[in-house]
Amino acid sequence: MDSTGRSSVVVSGAAEVGTNRPVPGNGYFRIASATKPIVATVVLQLVGEGKLSLDDSVEKHLPGVVTGTGAGHEIDGRRITIRQLLQNTSGLLDDYPGFDSKEQYLQHRFDSYSRDELIKRAMAMAPAFEPGAGWAYSNTNFLLAEAVIEKITGNSWQAEIDHRIFWPLDMRHSVWPGQSTTLPDPHARAYSVFAGSSEFVDTTEILDGAENLISTTADMNTFYRALLGGRLLRPAELEHMQTTVEIDEKVEMLWPGGRYGLGLVKRPLACGGEYWSHGGGDAGFITSDGVTPDGKRSIVISQTTALPEKMIEQEARAADLVSDALCD
Questions:
Q1: Residues 254/312, Cβ–Cβ less than 8 Å
Q2: Active site residue 33
Q3: Burial of 185 (0-12, 13-18, 19+ CB in 10 A)
Q4: Which of 122, 215, 267, 327 could tie 271 with a disulfide, CB 3.0–4.6 Å?
Q5: CA–CA separation, 264 and 203 (whole Å)
Q6: Which of helix, strand or coil describes residue 218?
Q7: Are 44 and 233 in contact (CB under 8 A)?
């Protein structure tokens, strides 16, 4: 979407291997970690409403939840702040089930894990560092942020997102899957080419639980433009969100020059300046995105094939498309 509000949709490839079915321009896809800036936005809205502080400890809002020995290393929610959750500086890591092969996908694609189960698994892992002493990408941080939203509001975090973001912005095509193992129509099929194989494995159907958001490029463009355009956060909270720290070397290979704010990534533009972003990937679907600092120009890319052995190259090509679009 350009600075005049004009939208363009470009599609490439086929929606299903072995067919000529075109990719739907308005297709649904799983946005995966691109949900993180949405969650962070709700937390920051609550900060703006005086219902919590970014410097509150996690223990204050989730007593007894963030605690454990973590393979001999103490985990203590009294020493971790809400800001550190959103900024991935808590030191907490993931023990997140995934698929490394076709066999694992077929065996575990319909397994279900509750948020509490995933948090407990993480509490058994040694933290990467002391709170605030480093940076490590972790879904656990945002699972805890979701729980904080629920504790403060008394509503599910999905309901808060619906009321605070989706409905006011008329994001009618951003939906929660519930117990569905597929996506609404129209959508392209998703594929994974697992390491050591050249087979395109259809990984469209998974049971992701109720929390893995499904959306469209149009809706995600709407969100990013509203966020950076100042329609969702007051200036003070948006400034907090855009206060960044260095990322680790491993993730920096995927996001060259990137710095992490509160659920939002700052990346350099090839033409000078910067843009804001937060992609994601889940079972074949890969999301890449970007929006200019004034919120006037944005792009969202949905890919439907994950290539683990070419992950860095795949991410780099998507980032080039983002940069080209934002530089016009």
A1: yes
A2: yes
A3: exposed
A4: 327
A5: 28
A6: helix
A7: yes
Q: With beta carbons less than 8 A apart as the criterion, state whether 134 and 89 touch.
A: yes
The CA-atom distances, in angstroms, between 245 and each of 23, 57, 134, 194, 274 are: 37, 20, 9, 32, 15
Which amino acid type is present at position 85? L
**DSSP classification of residue 308:** G
- 215 pairs with which residues across the strands? 29
| Alpha-carbon gap, residue 73 to 128, rounded angstroms | 10
pTM of the predicted protein model: 0.95
Point out the catalytic residue in the list 12, 33, 101, 156: 33
Kindly report the number of other CB atoms within 10 A of residue 268's CB atom.
Answer: 15
Distances (CA, A) of 326 to 3, 119, 257, 279: 10, 37, 17, 16
State the Cα–Cα distance between residues 38 and 165, nearest whole angstrom. Answer: 8
Which structure tokens are listed for 119?
A: 């948090």
